[in-house]
Design brief:
alpha/beta, 6-stranded mixed sheet, 28 helices, 12 strands, extended
Length: 641
């Protein structure tokens, strides 16, 4: 407790620098009598040097709690001998004491959190565990005293302590008292930095986490400090013993664990694992067979005290080495599969290919997007300004993502199941690869770049997973013809008015009546590609026509229906540009479509439109190509949204 006490004492020293005649300092909430005793002694020594009188008192209730615990007999005797205990339970009286004439007084009140009648004690400066936690944050090396720093004579110890306890306290409640006790132990016989690191891993059982020894001994401090979060041995051991490694238990989970142990023993003809060849001594579990039985029983739900204790006191290095095995199946291949077609068919085909003929059972499928190479973009040699090339790349990529965005979540809405009837999830890495709003960052990072040939090519890998272990992989390349119709679906969104709260992209044709006489799809396709379609603008625009045709006061509500539809369309447009079409299907697109159909039905049955809106068809239109815009000035507040 010396390290924590000395850290707290720095706050006391800082407070005394105010140099006032009387200072009251509270230290509350700590559960170690040795800490309070050390603070009293160090404060007494400081006050004697600086000419202060000292009154130090530990509250009666807190002291009795320590006595009842029976852990600190020597500290109990020392506190009483120095009269540092408020035996009469008059804690509030000390706050009112005044210094003798010409003297300076320090009142150190300890454990006032156990005082029933605080009588204004809360008005004074207090040092509490919460305050220390905030000050230290994730820099646990702040607890290392100068004496211990000098003993190590190696600044690397700071990084080791910060990394280890940072990992540890991300999965278990922070306890600075325990940290201090460990650091105190290093004062007695200072280890090297490497020995201190191994020492920390072997002490994990005191936090109810399996010990880690062999793997820790093979680590260098530099490699430990620089390791990424997912590879943290502390987190792996904690996740296993807390049931997070196998959060969903299925038949496939257990089958795959057994296959890993079989492979580790070399039963599939491969080289046996190192701990099978030479199992470490001094373990509670003394063989690989016992470890397999214990691990499977634990994963299946046997969390009895005896089994937990057995696993906690068995080197987790062994189990981690087994669980790190990457199981593979015959389905994995070096061949790259070419796929073509619209996004939904491509995604479903790749997703289902990971499910078919998988004998081992899986619980997830992951799309790993590697790179998109877009054709038809000038190279750096042809384009002097690199930003111009990036802009062209982004335009081409937008055509893909505005249609494809949200497709992963859309597919995941189905209740996919494997051959064993267990649910299967779908995920993507990077998760924002088809997010339209992320397009610029993908271009800048090189994930979207220029390519050769006549087609866009997107390389990706499909992984079949069981508890984040890869069971099978397949490599794909999605080839897209730049002239495919679906790429043109949202090409005009950028030309539509961003600033308008409502907008409807209406167009008309002088040959509209011809369309009514068409009898088949081919005839309509020919007509639509050759007819002269123009936007309704100026005096002929939809909004002006509504103003002109719906002039009566009772018709304001009718005009407002169009404005409401325009708002729904603008919401749909914005979501497509930001998140993608598939993201909009169950939200803005659905709302817009329902609003549109409701208005169509209303127009077909409402008498107010008879002999009015039919005049839009067949009239000569302006040749302007400016987008049609609308003002929301006429919307009654009761229907706007």
């Amino acid at each position: 407790m010396k390290q924590l006490a000395d850290y707290i004492f720095k706050d006391i020293v800082h407070s005394l620098r105010r140099n006032s005649d009387k200072q009251v300092i509270r230290v509350d909430g700590f559960e170690n009598l040795g800490l309070y005793l050390r603070l009293c002694r160090k404060t007494q020594e400081l006050c004697a040097k600086q000419g202060y009188s000292l009154i130090a008192k530990l509250s009666c209730n807190k002291f009795e709690q320590f006595v009842a615990a029976g852990k600190w007999p020597a500290e109990v005797s020392a506190m009483r001998m120095n009269d540092w205990v408020d035996e009469e339970d008059h804690m509030t009286s000390y706050r009112n004491m005044l210094p003798d004439s010409g003297k300076r007084l320090v009142v150190l009140l300890l454990g006032t959190d156990m005082v029933d009648d605080k009588g204004g004690l809360n008005d004074f400066f207090a040092i509490t565990p919460n305050k220390i936690d905030v000050e230290i944050g994730n820099k646990f090396s702040k607890l290392i005293s100068q004496e211990l720093h000098d003993a190590f004579d190696n600044a690397q110890i700071d990084d080791v302590v910060d990394r280890f306890f940072g990992d540890l306290f991300s999965c278990t409640p922070k306890n600075l008292s325990q940290v201090s006790d460990i650091l105190d132990g290093w004062l007695n016989e200072t280890p090297t930095v490497k020995e201190a690191m191994v020492d920390l891993f072997t002490m994990l059982p005191q936090w109810n986490i399996p010990m880690i020894q062999d793997a820790a001994e093979k680590l260098t401090p530099v490699k430990f400090i620089s390791a990424r979060g997912k590879s943290s041995l502390v987190l792996k051991a904690s996740n296993f013993i807390r049931g997070k490694t196998y959060a969903r238990i299925t038949k496939s989970t257990i089958a795959n664990m057994k296959k890993k142990f079989e492979q580790y023993r070399g039963e599939d003809g491969k080289q046996p694992g190192k701990y099978y060849m030479e199992y470490p001594t001094g373990q509670k579990i003394t063989s690989l067979a016992q470890l397999e039985a214990a691990a499977i029983s634990y994963v299946m739900g046997d969390h009895s005290e005896d089994l937990c204790d057995t696993l906690i006191h068995t080197d987790f290095s062994i189990l981690d080495d087994v669980l790190n095995i990457k199981l593979t199946t015959k389905k994995s291949t070096d061949k790259i599969i070419k796929v073509e077609g619209m996004p939904l068919s491509v995604f479903l085909m790749a997703f289902l290919s990971a499910l078919d003929d998988n004998e081992m059972g899986i619980d997830a499928v992951r799309f790993n997007w590697q790179q998109a190479r877009l054709c038809g973009i000038p190279s750096n040699v042809e384009v002097a300004d690199a930003s111009e090339k990036d802009a062209l790349l982004l335009d081409s990529w937008n055509a893909i993502t505005r249609f494809t965005g949200g497709i992963g979540e859309y597919i995941s809405q189905e209740n996919w199941q494997g051959h064993d009837g267990e649910p299967i999830s779908l995920c993507m890495e990077p998760s924002d690869f088809f997010l339209p709003s992320a397009g610029k960052s993908l271009v800048e990072s090189g994930l979207v770049t220029t390519g050769s040939g006549a087609k866009h090519k997107i390389n990706f890998t499909i992984e079949a997973l069981c508890n984040d272990t890869t069971i099978a992989t397949e490599d794909f390349v999605w080839e897209i013809d730049p002239m495919e119709a679906w790429l043109l679906a949202f090409r005009d969104l950028d030309d539509m008015p961003e600033e308008e709260t409502c907008y409807l992209p209406f167009e008309t044709s002088a040959e509209m009546n011809t369309a009514y006489s068409l009898k088949d799809e081919d005839g309509f396709a020919y007509w639509i590609t050759h007819t002269d379609v123009k936007p309704l603008v100026g005096n002929s625009s939809l909004w002006n026509t509504l103003d002109r045709e719906l002039q009566q006061a009772e018709e304001d509500m009718e005009q407002a229906r169009f404005f409401k539809l325009g708002k729904c369309f603008q919401n749909f447009r914005k979501q497509v540009m930001k998140e993608g079409f598939f993201a909009s299907i169950n939200s803005s697109a659905s709302i817009f479509l329902n609003e549109y159909l409701a208005l169509v039905d209303h127009i077909a049955t409402c008498p107010v439109y008879v002999g009015k809106l039919h005049t839009l068809v067949g009239k000569e239109r302006s040749s302007s190509t400016m987008p049609l815009r609308g003002s929301c000035r006429s919307i009654p507040s009761s229907v706007s949204r």
